[in-house]
Specification:
The complex is a heterodimer of chains A (167) and B (100). Chain A is 73% helix and 1% strand. Chain A has 167 residues and is mostly helical.
Chain lengths: 167, 100
């Protein structure tokens, strides 16, 4: 077993464990912290996949900004632990069955239909660095890039309007 | 050399955990976190395929997905705060009326 595969397997175990920890922790703050660890693990995967720009954006935007926003709202509302409700008692087993079906379907598609034999190349490729991404963003993908700026502006205005106190 | 199938399998597992979180949890904040987990799983598949086929468009798409996720979180959390102000609870089982 190569060192890279060992690293992948350890990181994969950490990623799945933190995702399950987010799913099953009763306290919302613990769930958010588990998710931060999961995002950091996925950032290391991006580094393994030779995508350093995406890895850094993952750490700053996801694990940094978005999760800080989550923690802020959790603590602002004071709703870390919700009382258990029994409105739909059959909903939890049904959700488990549906998730098992989804997992079985994806496993079937992955392992029994079209086999992808391609392996991820290991050598560092200079054509996927931040410079190449910047050039692609501002040349071929300029219009989508500008549209995302409008999207962020609309989201900002929408968030302000939604949380504004009415008088 | 790691086969790309491993990355896609990990992505599928993370996506399933996120979907299960949306179905099982009653706290809308945790439901939002599960949606973020699903977006993240899709991003992992994008980057893995981008690396395998040696094209950059996968990483560009991940960039756009992250932008949309940030916008979605801002608006979604604002909605949750607004709902909490009117109903004084954020349990999704209590949100069964269209009028506030």
């Amino acid at each position: 077993m190569s060192l890279e595969l060992l690293l992948f397997l350890i990181l994969a175990v950490v990623a799945v464990a933190t995702a399950l920890g987010m799913l099953f922790s009763r306290h919302a703050v613990y769930a958010a912290l588990f998710l931060v660890l999961n995002f950091a693990t996925v950032a290391v995967f991006y580094l393994l996949l030779n995508a350093p720009f995406i890895a850094m954006v993952q750490v700053t935007v996801y694990a940094g900004a978005i999760m800080v926003l989550f923690l802020f709202v959790i603590m602002l509302l004071g709703t870390e632990v919700l009382p258990p409700s029994s409105v739909l008692p059959w909903q939890r087993p049904l959700a488990m069955i549906l998730a098992l079906i989804l997992l079985a379907e994806s496993a079937y598609l992955l392992f029994f239909r079209q086999r992808l034999e391609a392996a991820v190349p290991l050598a560092i490729d200079p054509s996927s660095g931040p410079k190449a991404i910047g050039q692609a963003l501002f040349n071929a993908y300029l219009l989508p890039f500008e549209i995302t700026s409008i999207l962020l502006l609309v989201a900002m205005v929408g968030a302000i309007v939604l949380t504004r106190k009415e008088r | 050399m790691i086969p790309v199938t491993y990355y896609i399998a990990l992505s599928a597992i993370l996506f399933t955990i996120g979907a299960l979180g949306v179905l099982v949890r009653r706290n809308p904040l945790v439901i939002f976190m599960s949606i973020e987990l699903m977006l993240n799983a899709a991003n992992l598949a994008f980057v893995a395929f981008s690396r395998t086929f040696g094209v950059l468009s996968g990483q560009i798409f991940v960039f756009f997905v992250m932008t949309v996720a940030a916008a979605e979180v801002a608006v979604g959390l604002a909605l949750i705060v607004a709902i909490f102000r009117t109903k004084h609870t954020i349990n999704v089982d209590e949100m069964n009326t269209l009028k506030g």
